[in-house]
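Case 283 in the screening queue. Each case pairs one protein sequence with one candidate compound; here the compound is uracil. For every case the pipeline is the same: read the inputs, emit a complex structure as tokens, and attach any notable structural observations.

Predict complex for case 283.
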Amino acid sequence: MSDDPQAHLRRAMLQQLRDWQSAGVNVAPHGRVLEVSEELLSAEVPAAQAAVAAAPVEPPPPVEPPKHDTTVPPTSPEPSPSEPPTPVASGNPQQQLDQLAAEVAQCVKCEELACTRTQTVFGVGSPTARICFFGEAPGADEDKQGEPFVGRAGQLLTQIIEACTFKREEVYILNTLKCRPPGNRNPTPEENANCMPYFVRQLEIIQPEYIVCLGKFAAQNLLQSEAAIGRLRGQFHEYNGAKVIATYHPAYLLRNPAAKRDVWEDMKMMLRDMGIPIPGDKR
Ligand code: URA
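Case 283 output:
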């Protein structure tokens, strides 16, 4: 063995590199491949370079797995915690209404109403009606029977409909709210907002030519207005291509029969516009 310090250094390097190679280390920390060859190692290596080469080398950093493209969803995504998708209605208007009614029957958006109702009260009548009568919310009778306007106010509404020469089955009757507020209290703004998508979809399916809003609550909701019913009545408004009439609620007429005259004027305005002869009208 030579005492030449350079030869000693080369041997040490060679041994070191063989050890790394047998341990599977063949990538330099900066990514350059170390080709361990006798030829290279036997060459003259400047002392400084040789010192660097012989220095203990940290094991290479663990190879990082390829980064996932974050725009590509994982192959088995976790189920989304969001609400179940609203089913898309299909079929004829009656089928679409039935589908929507089934959805409404499951609704629990308003905790108190969902807990206290007997059932939801969706709507009744012809799915292709020219006229929709649009009320506020079910009362005790409606909550029991599952049909809007079946109590005393409902009987008066039926008389109004018949005075207009229609049968109840020929028009469509619905409410802003599908559940009875306990004790017939006023609906809250939150209940109102929760239920609005249902009447919006009902009206989209039926596409009536006329919507008769019964009372302030229905009129203000549909027209997104804060005006009093006395200011809204007596003229046509517009909602998604339908002509809207705002008039007094039948329950108000039960307490104030003198207002029936105004309601009849509102109905005559609609009938004239529809081209329907008005019973007993001399004009
Ligand atoms: N009042 C309403 O507004 N709707 C009904 O269904 C019954 C009474």
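Case 283 observations:
- Residues 135-139, 142, 148-149, 151, 153-154, 175, 251 surround uracil (CB under 6 Å).
- The two ends are 133 Å apart (CA to CA).
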